[in-house]
Description:
Layout: H1 10-16, E1 23-26, E2 30-34, E3 44-48, H2 60-80, E4 85-90, E5 103-108, H3 127-144
Amino acid sequence: xxxxxxxxxxxxxxxxxxxxxxxxxxxxxxxxxxxxxxxxxxxxxxxxxxxxxxxxxxxxxxxxxxxxxxxxxxxxxxxxxxxxxxxxxxxxxxxxxxxxxxxxxxxxxxxxxxxxxxxxxxxxxxxxxxxxxxxxxxxxxxxxxx
Length: 146
C-alpha cells in the first residue's frame, strides 16, 4: 500500500518538487539532497519518496532500495570530498527534526572534531542485565515475525 504524503512534511514537499533542494541522487523509491544545516560540507540526507516516519515503519520492499542508495551515496560522498570515511545515522523519533525517515551521510576526516556518539555511554550493571536485555530483544524479534 502506498503511503500518502504528509501535507506539512518538508521532506514530502522536497520529494514532490514543491520545495527546492540540492539533489544529489534520485530514483523512483528514494532521493538524497544536501542538508541545509550540515555538520560538514557534503552532509547528505537520504529519504524514501513516500512518507514513513521511522525505519520500523518502512515497508519491506523499500528497505533494499534505501540501503542500496545509502551504500552508493557513502562511496560517492567519500570520493567526491576526498574524505577519510563517513558517519551514517538514522534517528527514530528522538532527535528526528523532520518526522520523515532520513539517513544522514556525513563525510568524515581524521581530527575533524566530531567525537563518535554524542550521548553518554555506560556499561551494563552485570551479566544478568546483559542477559535480560538480550532476551527481551530476542523475544521482540520473535514476536514481530509471527
